[in-house]
């Protein structure tokens, strides 16, 4: 009953905040009119939007199979890429301001003077973000199932209802402010879980109880090379996922972006170390009989640990933290996916469409995307992490190359931009099905995308009218 009451209070708070932040214009709905003035809000909301239930469940349990390499690689890549992302954030904010860009495809369209490139990127985002939502829905429904006793299907329905309400009402302002609250809950939940397992394992003596093969960097049941690729692919999203970049776009000025770059990496470091360590800590805190059911399906470990080792009521905080991880990511993804269809594709086909109609369609299509993803999540693979790694990695590849090279290399042009998009997308998909399994598809996508960008740009004329960023 305590968990149900906490959830009810949480949902009511989200709805009230969303109503307060309700926006009546398209710019306000998708970009908060660039008026977010609090660095901590943007920095922690960025962290919340990046980490989802896939990290809380899949990332928390994956160490059972991958061992210590999962902890080391995930922590190092996440913290390292977070620092790079926030170092670059000021330049990205300046470019978005100069081009008056409200979406990432629109930003790259104006940098390369390429409406076609914008549409191609928007289509890629529409497909892959919908796929990416599926494992997040699975994670959220699994949480509801394990911690408040509803069925998996009922968990999916509850998730759709909550996210749809505050997405459709508040848009990006609600997503950022609710995301800030959700990020704080996520950090508290991660620390509670980490501390709870350490305590259950006898404090620092827990490391003596963990088998040596779990702590070996050779990997446990998964080769370290495969773990390295998955950790790299997932954390690469910190540099270029559109649902994160729009939070940078929303800052009031460059000073806000600069100071948000302090809160973002610190919160990511705390969360990464705590959550990605849970799988290996379980070997030192739980019995072999308790661990056995989760060796084939690690995604159920975190709810089990929360209900087993935390005092009554504290497991409710974990429920809210994990649900927050899911919903903060979902809402941001739905926003950028819906706007990629309405603002980027629909406006390309019908430039004269009114803002009011685009806003209405963005709300409606976002809810439709949530429903489609939830239906698709009724039957998904057992493990969340591999599915997230591929879908997130493709989007990151497609955006990262033209975004970063477009900032630093003014020679890049429309041909290079389009060639990079197609090469990144196609090479990752082909390698995923036919390539060598120990080399992650995202490495191939980055190499092919960069090569295509450079060759395409150098083989054609120089771009005209490219603005520089400071």
Automatic annotation (TrEMBL):
Keywords: Cell membrane, Ion transport, Membrane, Sodium, Sodium transport, Symport, Transmembrane, Transmembrane helix, Transport. It holds the Pfam family SSF. It is a multi-pass membrane protein. InterPro entries: Na/Glc_symporter_sf, Na/solute_symporter, Sodium:Solute_Symporter. Signal peptide: none annotated. One of its GO terms (cellular component) is plasma membrane. GO terms for molecular function: symporter activity. The chain crosses the membrane at residues 36-58, 70-96, 116-137, 149-169, 230-250, 262-286, 317-338, 358-378, 384-409, 416-434, 440-459. GO terms for biological process: sodium ion transport. It is found in: Cell membrane. Belongs to the sodium:solute symporter (SSF) (TC 2.A.21) family. This is Na+/solute symporter. It comes from Methanothrix soehngenii (strain ATCC 5969 / DSM 3671 / JCM 10134 / NBRC 103675 / OCM 69 / GP-6). The lineage of its organism: Archaea, Methanobacteriati, Methanobacteriota, Stenosarchaea group, Methanomicrobia.
């Amino acid at each position: 009953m305590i968990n149900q009451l906490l959830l009810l209070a949480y949902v009511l708070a989200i709805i009230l905040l969303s109503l307060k932040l309700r926006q009546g214009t398209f710019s306000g709905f998708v970009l908060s009119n660039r008026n977010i003035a609090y660095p901590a809000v943007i920095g922690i909301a960025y962290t919340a939007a990046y980490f989802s239930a896939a990290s809380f469940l899949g990332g928390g349990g994956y160490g059972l199979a991958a061992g210590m390499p999962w902890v080391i690689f995930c922590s190092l890549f996440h913290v390292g890429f977070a620092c790079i992302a926030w170092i670059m954030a000021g330049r990205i904010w300046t470019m978005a301001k100069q081009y008056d860009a409200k979406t990432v495809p629109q930003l790259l369209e104006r940098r390369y003077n390429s409406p076609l490139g914008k549409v191609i990127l928007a289509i890629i985002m529409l497909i892959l973000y919908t796929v990416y939502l599926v494992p997040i829905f699975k994670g959220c429904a699994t949480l509801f199932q394990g911690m408040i006793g509803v069925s998996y299907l009922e968990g999916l329905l509850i998730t759709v209802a909550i996210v749809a309400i505050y997405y459709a009402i508040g848009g990006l302002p609600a997503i950022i402010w609710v995301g800030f609250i959700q990020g704080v809950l996520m950090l508290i939940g991660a620390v509670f879980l980490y501390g709870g397992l350490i305590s259950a394992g006898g404090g620092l003596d827990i490391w003596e109880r963990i088998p040596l093969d779990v702590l070996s960097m050779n990997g446990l049941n998964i080769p370290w090379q495969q773990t390295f690729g998955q950790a790299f692919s997932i954390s690469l999203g910190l540099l270029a996922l559109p649902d994160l970049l729009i939070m940078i776009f929303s800052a009031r000025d460059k000073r806000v972006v600069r100071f948000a770059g302090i809160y973002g990496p610190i919160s990511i470091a705390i969360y990464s170390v705590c959550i990605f360590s849970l799988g290996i800590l379980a070997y030192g805190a739980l019995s072999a009989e308790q661990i056995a059911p989760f060796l084939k399906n690690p995604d159920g470990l975190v709810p089990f640990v929360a209900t087993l080792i935390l005092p009554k009521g504290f497991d409710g905080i974990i429920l809210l933290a994990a649900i927050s991880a899911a919903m903060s990511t979902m809402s941001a993804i739905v926003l950028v996916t819906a706007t990629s269809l309405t603002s980027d594709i629909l406006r390309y086909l019908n430039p004269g469409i009114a803002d009011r109609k685009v806003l209405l369609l963005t709300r409606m299509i976002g809810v439709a995307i949530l429903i489609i993803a939830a239906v698709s999540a009724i039957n998904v693979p057992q493990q969340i992490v591999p599915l997230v790694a591929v879908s997130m990695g493709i989007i990151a590849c497609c955006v990262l190359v033209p975004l970063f090279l477009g900032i630093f290399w003014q020679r890049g042009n429309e041909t290079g931009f389009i060639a990079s998009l197609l090469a990144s997308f196609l090479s990752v998909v082909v390698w995923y099905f036919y390539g060598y399994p120990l080399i992650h598809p995202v490495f191939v996508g980055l190499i092919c995308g960069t090569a295509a960008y450079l060759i395409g740009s150098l083989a054609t004329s120089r771009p005209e009218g490219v603005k520089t960023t400071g």
